[in-house]
Amino acid sequence: MLRTVMLFAVIALFLLGPDRPAHAETHHTCKGFIDSLPATISTQGVWCLRKDLSNAMTSGSAITVNANNVTLDCNGFKIGGLAAGPGTLANSISANGRFNLTVRHCNIRGFLRGIYATSGGAHLVERNGLDSNTLSAIAIFGPGSTIRGNRVVDTGGTTAPLYIYTAGIYAGNGIDIIDNTVTGVVGPGNGTTATTYGIRTQFNGNGSVTANRVRDLVPAGGGTVRGILNSSSGRLVVRDNDVQDSGHANGVGVSCTSNQSTARGNVVSGFATGISNCALSGNYVNAN
Fold this sequence. Notes:
Blueprint: H1 2-16, E1 32-33, E2 39-41, E3 45-48, E4 53-54, E5 61-65, E6 70-73, E7 78-80, E8 91-96, E9 101-104, E10 107-109, E11 113-118, E12 124-126, E13 129-131, E14 136-141, E15 145-148, E16 151-155, E17 165-172, E18 175-178, E19 181-186, E20 195-202, E21 208-210, E22 213-218, E23 225-231, E24 237-239, E25 242-244, E26 252-255, E27 262-264, E28 267-269, E29 273-276, E30 279-281, E31 284-286
Parallel strand pairs: 1-3, 2-5, 3-6, 4-7, 5-8, 6-9, 7-10, 8-11, 9-12, 10-13, 11-14, 12-15, 13-16, 14-17, 15-18, 16-19, 17-20, 18-21, 19-22, 20-23, 21-24, 22-25, 23-26, 24-27, 25-28, 26-29, 27-30, 28-31
Protein backbone atom coordinates (compact mmCIF):
# COMPACT_ATOMS: atom_id res chain seq x y z
CA MET A 1 0.00 0.00 0.00
CA LEU A 2 2.83 2.38 0.94
CA ARG A 3 4.61 1.70 -2.37
CA THR A 4 1.39 2.43 -4.27
CA VAL A 5 0.94 5.75 -2.49
CA MET A 6 4.56 6.70 -3.16
CA LEU A 7 4.19 5.78 -6.83
CA PHE A 8 1.15 8.01 -7.22
CA ALA A 9 2.99 10.83 -5.46
CA VAL A 10 5.91 10.58 -7.91
CA ILE A 11 3.53 10.56 -10.87
CA ALA A 12 1.74 13.63 -9.51
CA LEU A 13 5.01 15.51 -9.09
CA PHE A 14 5.98 14.65 -12.67
CA LEU A 15 2.66 15.82 -14.05
CA LEU A 16 2.44 19.01 -12.02
CA GLY A 17 6.10 19.93 -11.62
CA PRO A 18 7.28 23.33 -12.89
CA ASP A 19 9.81 21.82 -15.34
CA ARG A 20 7.28 19.74 -17.22
CA PRO A 21 7.35 20.72 -20.94
CA ALA A 22 4.41 22.88 -21.94
CA HIS A 23 1.87 20.98 -24.02
CA ALA A 24 0.66 22.29 -27.36
CA GLU A 25 -2.84 23.68 -27.30
CA THR A 26 -5.55 21.65 -28.96
CA HIS A 27 -8.18 23.41 -31.07
CA HIS A 28 -10.85 23.29 -28.38
CA THR A 29 -8.58 25.03 -25.82
CA CYS A 30 -7.83 28.00 -28.10
CA LYS A 31 -9.78 31.21 -27.68
CA GLY A 32 -9.18 32.04 -31.32
CA PHE A 33 -7.01 31.37 -34.34
CA ILE A 34 -4.68 33.46 -36.45
CA ASP A 35 -5.23 32.44 -40.05
CA SER A 36 -3.64 35.35 -41.95
CA LEU A 37 -0.98 38.02 -41.55
CA PRO A 38 -0.71 40.73 -40.40
CA ALA A 39 -2.84 40.11 -37.32
CA THR A 40 -3.50 41.90 -34.02
CA ILE A 41 -4.45 40.19 -30.75
CA SER A 42 -6.57 42.58 -28.69
CA THR A 43 -8.13 40.29 -26.04
CA GLN A 44 -6.53 38.04 -23.47
CA GLY A 45 -6.56 34.27 -23.71
CA VAL A 46 -4.95 31.50 -25.73
CA TRP A 47 -4.51 32.17 -29.44
CA CYS A 48 -3.27 29.52 -31.85
CA LEU A 49 -2.06 28.80 -35.33
CA ARG A 50 -3.52 25.89 -37.28
CA LYS A 51 -1.48 26.24 -40.46
CA ASP A 52 1.77 27.74 -41.73
CA LEU A 53 1.59 31.49 -42.39
CA SER A 54 3.88 33.80 -44.34
CA ASN A 55 3.99 37.38 -45.52
CA ALA A 56 6.36 39.61 -47.53
CA MET A 57 5.79 42.70 -45.37
CA THR A 58 8.94 44.81 -44.89
CA SER A 59 7.87 46.85 -41.85
CA GLY A 60 5.55 46.59 -38.88
CA SER A 61 4.80 43.25 -37.22
CA ALA A 62 3.24 40.08 -38.54
CA ILE A 63 1.48 39.56 -35.19
CA THR A 64 0.99 42.46 -32.77
CA VAL A 65 -0.10 41.69 -29.21
CA ASN A 66 -2.18 44.53 -27.76
CA ALA A 67 -3.48 42.83 -24.61
CA ASN A 68 -2.14 41.44 -21.34
CA ASN A 69 -2.34 37.76 -20.37
CA VAL A 70 -1.99 36.40 -23.91
CA THR A 71 -0.63 32.99 -24.87
CA LEU A 72 0.33 32.48 -28.50
CA ASP A 73 0.79 28.79 -29.29
CA CYS A 74 1.81 28.10 -32.88
CA ASN A 75 1.42 24.34 -32.47
CA GLY A 76 4.64 23.87 -34.44
CA PHE A 77 3.46 25.90 -37.44
CA LYS A 78 5.58 28.53 -39.20
CA ILE A 79 5.46 32.30 -39.28
CA GLY A 80 7.54 33.16 -42.33
CA GLY A 81 8.96 36.43 -43.60
CA LEU A 82 11.81 35.35 -45.87
CA ALA A 83 10.16 36.86 -48.94
CA ALA A 84 10.87 40.35 -47.57
CA GLY A 85 14.61 39.85 -48.00
CA PRO A 86 17.59 40.74 -45.76
CA GLY A 87 16.68 44.45 -45.65
CA THR A 88 13.39 43.80 -43.89
CA LEU A 89 12.39 45.97 -40.92
CA ALA A 90 9.44 43.75 -39.97
CA ASN A 91 9.11 41.86 -36.69
CA SER A 92 7.35 38.52 -36.44
CA ILE A 93 5.65 38.81 -33.01
CA SER A 94 5.75 42.06 -31.04
CA ALA A 95 4.32 43.53 -27.86
CA ASN A 96 4.94 46.86 -26.15
CA GLY A 97 4.04 47.62 -22.56
CA ARG A 98 2.18 44.32 -22.08
CA PHE A 99 2.33 41.80 -19.25
CA ASN A 100 2.22 37.99 -19.12
CA LEU A 101 2.82 37.27 -22.79
CA THR A 102 3.66 33.63 -23.52
CA VAL A 103 4.97 32.53 -26.93
CA ARG A 104 5.57 28.84 -27.49
CA HIS A 105 5.93 26.18 -30.19
CA CYS A 106 6.45 28.71 -33.01
CA ASN A 107 8.78 28.30 -35.99
CA ILE A 108 9.80 31.82 -36.99
CA ARG A 109 12.04 32.74 -39.90
CA GLY A 110 13.06 35.67 -42.05
CA PHE A 111 12.22 38.72 -39.88
CA LEU A 112 14.36 41.54 -38.48
CA ARG A 113 13.41 40.32 -35.01
CA GLY A 114 11.60 37.08 -34.32
CA ILE A 115 9.96 37.63 -30.92
CA TYR A 116 10.14 41.21 -29.65
CA ALA A 117 8.70 42.57 -26.40
CA THR A 118 9.55 45.89 -24.79
CA SER A 119 8.46 47.29 -21.42
CA GLY A 120 5.78 45.39 -19.52
CA GLY A 121 7.11 42.13 -18.07
CA ALA A 122 6.51 38.59 -16.80
CA HIS A 123 6.84 37.20 -20.32
CA LEU A 124 7.62 33.57 -21.17
CA VAL A 125 9.24 32.58 -24.46
CA GLU A 126 9.74 28.83 -24.64
CA ARG A 127 10.31 25.94 -27.02
CA ASN A 128 10.36 27.93 -30.23
CA GLY A 129 12.53 27.39 -33.30
CA LEU A 130 13.89 30.58 -34.87
CA ASP A 131 16.08 30.71 -37.96
CA SER A 132 17.24 33.19 -40.61
CA ASN A 133 16.15 36.27 -38.64
CA THR A 134 18.39 39.14 -39.62
CA LEU A 135 19.06 41.19 -36.45
CA SER A 136 18.00 39.13 -33.43
CA ALA A 137 15.87 36.04 -33.01
CA ILE A 138 14.55 36.92 -29.54
CA ALA A 139 14.61 40.41 -28.02
CA ILE A 140 12.79 40.69 -24.68
CA PHE A 141 12.96 43.56 -22.17
CA GLY A 142 10.72 43.23 -19.13
CA PRO A 143 11.36 42.19 -15.52
CA GLY A 144 10.37 38.75 -14.36
CA SER A 145 10.53 37.27 -17.87
CA THR A 146 11.99 33.90 -18.90
CA ILE A 147 13.50 32.76 -22.21
CA ARG A 148 14.03 29.01 -22.15
CA GLY A 149 14.40 25.95 -24.33
CA ASN A 150 14.53 27.76 -27.68
CA ARG A 151 16.55 26.85 -30.78
CA VAL A 152 18.13 29.91 -32.41
CA VAL A 153 19.83 29.18 -35.73
CA ASP A 154 21.46 31.32 -38.46
CA THR A 155 20.78 34.81 -37.14
CA GLY A 156 22.16 38.00 -38.72
CA GLY A 157 23.03 39.45 -42.09
CA THR A 158 20.66 42.42 -42.04
CA THR A 159 21.29 44.87 -44.86
CA ALA A 160 19.14 47.54 -43.23
CA PRO A 161 21.27 50.63 -42.47
CA LEU A 162 22.42 51.80 -39.03
CA TYR A 163 22.45 48.44 -37.21
CA ILE A 164 25.90 47.85 -35.76
CA TYR A 165 25.32 44.53 -34.02
CA THR A 166 23.54 41.22 -34.35
CA ALA A 167 22.51 38.95 -31.46
CA GLY A 168 20.90 35.55 -31.28
CA ILE A 169 19.19 36.52 -28.01
CA TYR A 170 19.09 40.10 -26.70
CA ALA A 171 17.40 40.68 -23.34
CA GLY A 172 17.39 42.80 -20.22
CA ASN A 173 15.75 44.27 -17.12
CA GLY A 174 15.79 41.19 -14.91
CA ILE A 175 15.35 38.18 -17.20
CA ASP A 176 16.33 34.51 -16.88
CA ILE A 177 17.81 33.01 -20.07
CA ILE A 178 17.86 29.24 -19.62
CA ASP A 179 18.70 26.16 -21.73
CA ASN A 180 18.71 27.75 -25.19
CA THR A 181 20.84 26.73 -28.18
CA VAL A 182 22.25 29.65 -30.17
CA THR A 183 24.25 28.67 -33.23
CA GLY A 184 25.33 30.47 -36.38
CA VAL A 185 25.21 34.22 -35.66
CA VAL A 186 26.79 36.42 -38.35
CA GLY A 187 27.32 40.17 -38.38
CA PRO A 188 25.24 42.66 -40.38
CA GLY A 189 25.55 42.74 -44.14
CA ASN A 190 25.27 46.53 -44.37
CA GLY A 191 28.99 47.32 -44.46
CA THR A 192 29.31 48.48 -40.84
CA THR A 193 31.98 47.44 -38.37
CA ALA A 194 29.89 45.38 -36.01
CA THR A 195 30.01 43.08 -33.02
CA THR A 196 28.33 39.68 -33.16
CA TYR A 197 26.76 38.38 -29.95
CA GLY A 198 25.46 34.94 -29.14
CA ILE A 199 23.55 36.15 -26.07
CA ARG A 200 23.57 39.83 -25.09
CA THR A 201 22.04 41.16 -21.88
CA GLN A 202 21.72 44.76 -20.77
CA PHE A 203 20.57 46.17 -17.43
CA ASN A 204 19.94 42.56 -16.38
CA GLY A 205 20.92 42.74 -12.74
CA ASN A 206 19.12 40.09 -10.69
CA GLY A 207 18.73 37.97 -13.84
CA SER A 208 20.60 34.86 -14.91
CA VAL A 209 22.10 33.24 -18.00
CA THR A 210 22.14 29.52 -17.31
CA ALA A 211 22.84 26.25 -19.19
CA ASN A 212 22.85 27.71 -22.70
CA ARG A 213 24.91 26.57 -25.69
CA VAL A 214 26.50 29.25 -27.89
CA ARG A 215 28.63 28.52 -30.96
CA ASP A 216 29.56 29.53 -34.53
CA LEU A 217 29.79 33.32 -34.26
CA VAL A 218 31.08 35.29 -37.27
CA PRO A 219 32.01 39.02 -37.09
CA ALA A 220 31.49 41.55 -39.86
CA GLY A 221 33.52 44.47 -41.19
CA GLY A 222 36.51 43.97 -38.92
CA GLY A 223 34.32 43.62 -35.84
CA THR A 224 34.60 41.02 -33.12
CA VAL A 225 32.53 38.39 -31.32
CA ARG A 226 31.12 38.01 -27.83
CA GLY A 227 29.71 34.67 -26.77
CA ILE A 228 27.74 36.01 -23.79
CA LEU A 229 27.96 39.75 -23.07
CA ASN A 230 26.38 41.27 -19.97
CA SER A 231 26.55 45.07 -19.99
CA SER A 232 25.34 47.28 -17.12
CA SER A 233 23.98 44.10 -15.55
CA GLY A 234 25.01 44.32 -11.90
CA ARG A 235 24.46 41.20 -9.82
CA LEU A 236 23.89 38.77 -12.65
CA VAL A 237 24.64 35.03 -12.48
CA VAL A 238 26.21 33.35 -15.55
CA ARG A 239 26.31 29.64 -14.89
CA ASP A 240 26.88 26.27 -16.61
CA ASN A 241 26.97 27.59 -20.18
CA ASP A 242 28.96 26.02 -23.05
CA VAL A 243 30.45 28.78 -25.23
CA GLN A 244 32.59 27.94 -28.28
CA ASP A 245 34.47 29.93 -30.93
CA SER A 246 37.10 29.27 -33.57
CA GLY A 247 39.72 31.80 -32.48
CA HIS A 248 38.58 35.18 -33.79
CA ALA A 249 40.89 38.02 -32.77
CA ASN A 250 39.73 39.93 -29.68
CA GLY A 251 36.79 37.58 -29.13
CA VAL A 252 35.51 37.18 -25.57
CA GLY A 253 33.61 34.12 -24.36
CA VAL A 254 31.80 35.52 -21.31
CA SER A 255 31.94 39.20 -20.40
CA CYS A 256 30.49 40.99 -17.36
CA THR A 257 30.27 44.65 -16.39
CA SER A 258 32.12 44.06 -13.11
CA ASN A 259 32.83 41.41 -10.52
CA GLN A 260 29.41 42.05 -9.01
CA SER A 261 28.36 39.48 -11.63
CA THR A 262 29.36 35.87 -11.06
CA ALA A 263 30.48 33.34 -13.68
CA ARG A 264 30.42 29.78 -12.38
CA GLY A 265 30.77 26.37 -14.00
CA ASN A 266 30.99 27.64 -17.58
CA VAL A 267 32.97 25.86 -20.30
CA VAL A 268 34.54 28.35 -22.71
CA SER A 269 36.62 27.32 -25.70
CA GLY A 270 38.38 29.04 -28.59
CA PHE A 271 38.11 32.71 -27.57
CA ALA A 272 41.08 35.05 -27.31
CA THR A 273 39.76 35.98 -23.85
CA GLY A 274 37.77 33.33 -22.05
CA ILE A 275 36.02 35.27 -19.26
CA SER A 276 36.28 39.00 -18.58
CA ASN A 277 35.37 41.13 -15.52
CA CYS A 278 33.22 38.49 -13.78
CA ALA A 279 33.73 37.06 -10.32
CA LEU A 280 34.97 33.55 -11.13
CA SER A 281 34.22 30.14 -9.67
CA GLY A 282 34.92 26.73 -11.17
CA ASN A 283 34.97 27.65 -14.88
CA TYR A 284 36.95 25.77 -17.55
CA VAL A 285 38.58 27.94 -20.20
CA ASN A 286 40.45 26.57 -23.23
CA ALA A 287 41.85 29.24 -25.57
CA ASN A 288 43.00 26.73 -28.21
